[in-house]
Design goal:
DUF112_TM; transmembrane; 2 strands; two-stranded antiparallel ribbon; mainly alpha
């Protein structure tokens, strides 16, 4: 009941004219960026980080959460109409969604995606409302050893579980950790990896890294590499933009199953929505094979409904894990965590005690965002699709200018612009040679926490490393990590064996 009363109080904050406006702005921006090829919610949040210094923290974070959810709504539009997933989380939606569009059912496919994302996100928001306070209370038992174990769990899971090459993922993680330790050591006061330059004594800003990695690097990649590839022809949907009673009854069980599959992945640092969307699609495909009239491969509505619900339920739970544990499960969540720290806030149990107004207003905004996104996507999906007609040179030139202006406005330093360019070129090289960006971002965001926790734990135990495995919570995290790694290795070996066969 305390959670329900706090949520009602949060609605009182978020339904003010100012905060409601930021919810709508975030949903619009997230949907717009999700629709456009090559972009994503992580880029939108990274671009807006430098220009939100003047905003009140609650307003900025409400907007970022709207962008996070809106990116998934918008991305499905491109996947269905163009057969081109903008993010890995929408790949599974292309399999049956594009088939539906080819069969003249594009409006029903878009409606299926919008309603599925709404159901998944809304159920996840309800679960987060009651689960996040419990998680925060549980994390209050964490000491330095437990926080180090949690950070290590995130490092290993995001760099090895969701990447095709564990070596590339680990190298990207190490690079992120290396960037995080540049600057003056907070304990000894000694400069580290500054190359003798006073410009690096304060380290490299997480804002500069995220904008360079997720925005400028993506622009360079899209301009140099992706422009050489041909996109599919966008299908023009015609007909009713809603589902019939029969279609709704067909999709409803898939929406619920997809939501159930996606929820647990919101608290597992396994790269975000990619894995649960594929699992949800695979589960529906297996169920379809047992039917007397299998429909997968011809535009089965259940093959689109389940991944869409799974993706948004994972995102909703991810925001709960971020608030209660300070644990980012994807690149976008890592950037939002950086936004918290930019405002001097640290997610976790103390945030629920010190800033309950912010926490519960943010949770209430999840519900409002779902309603806003359904309202602007269900009837107006084709209007959003017209953003695909924007000439790519104008789009990418505008993003590049916004990157530079945002970084310069936040620091007034030419040196930061140089660092931005270097990071952008590095991101381009990583994308070109298929190195994942998420481990680098998560390594930089959580690197300082891991270093501080390791030092604190070792100092309190006079250098005895056994302190790192002296608590049931830390041991439990390591055991879960080993199980996840074992299952991942088994799945990859099975996949290779199947490919050889």
């Amino acid at each position: 009941m305390d959670s329900l009363a706090s949520l009602i109080d949060g609605f009182g904050h978020v339904l003010s004219i100012q905060n409601l406006l930021w919810v709508v702005i975030g949903c619009f921006l997230g949907t717009a960026v999700g629709v456009m090829p090559g972009l994503g919610s992580s880029m939108a949040v990274a671009l807006l980080l430098p220009v939100t210094f003047a905003l009140e923290p609650t307003a900025a974070l409400i907007m970022f959460s709207g962008i996070y959810f809106g990116g998934l709504f918008g991305d499905s539009t491109m996947a269905i109409l163009l057969n081109t997933p903008g993010q890995a989380s929408s790949i599974a939606s292309t399999f049956e969604g594009y088939k539906m569009a080819q069969n003249g059912r594009a409006p029903q496919a878009l409606a299926t995606a919008a309603i599925g994302a709404f159901i998944g996100g809304m159920i996840a928001s309800v679960v987060v409302t009651f689960l996040a306070p419990w998680l925060a209370e549980f994390s209050s038992q964490f000491g330095p050893a437990e926080f180090f174990a949690l950070a290590l769990f995130a490092f290993v899971a995001t760099s090895s579980v969701v990447t095709d090459s564990a070596i590339k993922g680990l190298l990207a993680l190490v690079l992120g950790l290396a960037i995080a330790v540049i600057g003056i050591d907070g304990v000894s006061g000694a400069p580290r990896f500054t190359l003798g330059s006073p410009l690096l004594f304060d380290g490299i800003s997480i804002v500069t890294v995220t904008v360079g990695m997720l925005a400028l690097g993506e622009v360079i990649y899209m301009g140099v590499i992706a422009r050489k590839t041909d996109e599919g022809e966008m299908l023009r949907p015609k007909g009713r933009p809603w589902l019939s009673g029969k279609e709704f009854r067909e999709a409803l069980p898939a929406w619920l199953r997809g939501t159930a599959i996606g929820l647990p992945f919101g608290v597992i640092p396994a790269g975000g929505s990619e894995i649960p969307t594929f699992l949800a699609y695979g589960a529906e495909k297996k169920l379809d094979s047992r039917r007397p009239d299998p429909q997968f491969g011809t535009g089965a509505i259940r093959g689109l409904a389940a991944p869409e619900a799974a993706g948004n339920s994972t995102t909703g739970m991810a925001m709960g894990a971020l608030l209660a544990l300070g644990l980012p499960i994807s690149a976008t969540a890592a950037v939002i965590l950086a936004a918290f720290r930019m405002f001097g806030l640290q997610p976790g149990p103390l945030l629920f005690v010190n800033r309950p107004d912010l926490v519960w207003a943010l949770m209430a905004s999840f519900f409002v965002a779902m309603i806003v996104l359904l309202a602007i996507n269900l009837p107006f999906a084709m209007l959003w699709a017209k953003l695909l007609l924007i000439p790519k040179p104008y789009l990418y030139a505008g993003i590049t200018m916004f990157c530079g202006l945002g970084i310069y406005a936040s620091s007034s330093s030419i040196a930061d612009l140089i660092v931005l360019l270097v990071i952008g070129v590095l991101a381009f090289l990583m994308r070109t040679f298929d190195y994942p960006l998420a481990p680098l971002i998560i390594g930089m965001v959580l690197g300082p926490l891991a270093e501080y926790s390791l030092r604190d734990a070792m100092q309190s135990a006079d250098g005895d490393a056994s302190v790192l495995v002296s608590s049931p919570i830390a041991i439990g995290l390591y055991v879960v990590l080993l199980l996840v790694l074992g299952l991942t290795i088994r799945a990859k070996l099975a996949g290779r064996a199947g490919a050889r066969a």
